[in-house]
Write a structure and sequence with these properties.
The chain is mostly helical and 236 residues long. Helix content is 62%, strand content 0%. The protein has 10 helices and no strands. Helix 1 crosses helix 3 and helix 4 packs parallel to helix 6. The N and C termini lie far apart (89 Å).
Amino acid sequence: MVRPPHEGRLTMVRERLPSPFPQRYTDRQWARYVRQGRELVQQESGLQFALGDITLKMVPKKEVGDRRGVFPVLDRYADSIGINVHSLLSYRSVAIHWPVEHRQPGESFSVHRALEALDDRFEIIKTPPGGAAHWTEDQALRRAGRLPHRPLTKEEKLDRVRTLLTNSESAVGAVEEIIRRPDIAQKVMANPSNQRILYRAHHEQRVEAAAVRLAQAHDREAEPEKRRRLSRPSAA
């Protein structure tokens, strides 16, 4: 049986955890739920690290960028144990970037994964922002320069929208929904830059439509002559 890396060294600090919902939970109830949740998350994190470590035993780490032979083995292994191969590859990547001796007890696997690309991650993870006892995943993503799951700043929200609208069809649908709101449409059209962009797009659309109509008219005019040529008897 594989022993999760965090097993045997999990320490739950008895910090004061005031209830953010005093009408529903007392401080004692909230603290109990939080401690129970953290214990379960740590168990899950230990299992995720353990699976990543198993893959490193099965297929030892090679030079950076050399994945030959890794995917076929892990793909078959993932099917055998009932897990998605991409999840298994993610566990392996985090296990590579976080050797056992550098994994931070009390911090979740998700936090380790969010920070894995930072060169100084082994030191960064020891100091949660704002003097907090633990990192949140969004804090770790921001620290790594990545888009958090819950954007807070205007720029983060815009980045999330840009990410969601990378698909052209989805972007068209989203814009159509937005401009149906009069207040939004007015604000968009109040910007001269937006007016120029929309005017240019409309002008180009009209030019393209005119070109199509001209081509169709030319084809209609040429059709009788084409039929006459085809009806003429071939020279013997």
